[in-house]
Design a protein that fits this description.
Blueprint (H helix, E strand, L loop, with lengths): L1 H9 L28 E8 L8 H4 L3 H21 L2 H7 L5 H29 L1 H20 L8 H16 L2 H11 L5 H29 L1 H20 L10 H8 E9 L2 E6 H10 L1
Antiparallel strand pairs: 1-2, 2-3
Amino acid sequence: MAIQIILSISMFFFDDTKTPQIPSVRSPPGTPIESDCESSQITTINSNRPDPNSFQERHRWAVPYLLFIGFLIYALGDGLIVKFIPLYFANDCNLSPTQVQIIYVILPVFLVAGLYLAERLATKIGRVLTIILCRGLGAISLFGMVFLPQYTGDWRLMAPLYVAHAVIGDSAYPLEESILMDFVDKDTRGRWKSIQSIGEFGWSGTAVLGGILADDQGYTTTILITALIECFAALFFLLLIPLVPIKEGGEEEVDQAETVSTHRTEQGSFLFTEGERTSLLSVS
């Protein structure tokens, strides 16, 4: 419950880059400009306008579906273990109920840091690659709990590995929400959010199956199945790489947009960028 509350609150603070509006620097009519320029015309050149015939634009409809399928599979897999992990720590790692609850108390603290670092990383390598990295590292943490038999039952390693799985894996959630909101129409966003509740219901439903597997095959086998399911979910996120740009729309447009001023003087016409125009006016 604490993890869900932290994830929900974090959505209000997640910084989705908006496409900035480049302000016009035209002077009001009748305002003199202290320079030798007779007239000026501001033209914005933006070479990043989406091409409707590009691969990304023609297949952007698939993005929310891939996100939903990946999220659903990941949630179903995670639901197999999340309910009985306290029993795993109590029975296999010999932790007391108080010690188990300490793990769940400190987990949201690390999750806040994970959410912040994931957002920062997304600005460098892109949201999709960050999601894949977070989900992948989360699955690797589960593999560590399975394939380190010499440490099985040692809470000093098992507890940090589980915390790493929960923190790193769930840090991708706001990024998935960000992509979803960018690639669906405003009038269908509520519908997609409602569809995502299916994943939350399935997350609770697979807990029953996880309990049966844990009783029949043991905790370690169930953790291994969860790790394999989460790796399979990552395949759908891999399909998003050619569909979602590395840089978010606002950043990419700022990088490639240039404001150019054409000034006619006694010597003729010439072009310079907005920064050069500001400098020229300040000097003159």
